[in-house]
Amino acid sequence: MEMELWYTEKQTPNVGITCKVKETLWRCQTDYQELAVLDTFQFGRILLLDGMVQATAADEFVYHEMIVHVPMCTHPAPKTVVVVGGGDGGTVREICKYPSVEKVILVEIDAQVVEAARKFFPEIACSLDDPRVEICYADGIEYIRSLDSFCDLIIVDSTEPVGPAIGLFDTPFYQSVFKALKEDGILVAQTESPFFNAELIRNVFSRVKSVFPSSYFYLASVPTYPSGLWSFTMGSKKYDPQKPEGTFIPQNTRYYWPGIHKSSLILPRFVQELLE
Ligand code: AG3
Question: Which of 11, 63, 114, 273 is deepest in the core (most CB within 10 A)?
């Protein structure tokens, strides 16, 4: 009998997601985290950081389209965008679909994530060489602190709030994001699962709310992330995602479209209660 290899991410101390593995393609310890790339039967290639699924070939489009197009289409014509984290390039790929975009700065702390993405996920990393994109290997917290009225949109495409990412979920960071944004700028951050990370969501939402004049929250279904229901928190100085002002609507998407934009902001009761 052929030996079977299975990988489990323990999403909580009591729940895991388990995938049957074809092959381990890459595994190394970087300066910041353990990085692995597995080829799985169900989801194709998956990128793991410290054992946590960051992206899979099968469902990365949901997360990357939703973290990008909801804020991008809210703004009338975003020109300058900063991505914190996001070394796989999926977020950058979606941003590059907009003709209004002149400059994208990817601030990734770990160069080896970008290297692994280029090598094993060319379909995710494909826009990292777009002439508008600049990759900056730096700590996102320090980088954002150095900016003043600089950009239209800041997207926090981070890992879980562990290690160097902890500060990305805290008030001082949101204050420097506010300062780094233009007077009509928008912040979007990935904020985990309302089923498994209620406390974190409550905290982050109230922190963003305390810094920005308006805050919003939306959801998308990502099967390989904990609980399958993922959330995004938006802080906005001027524009309201419920009345998107974007003139360009990307057509080559698989999850996002204007109907999903609207519906993603309509929340189940238990999530509404979480944010109150
Ligand atoms: N960033 C969010 C991944 C969090 C997943 N958590 C987990 N598997 N426990 C993804 C980065 C993709 N660009």
Answer: 63
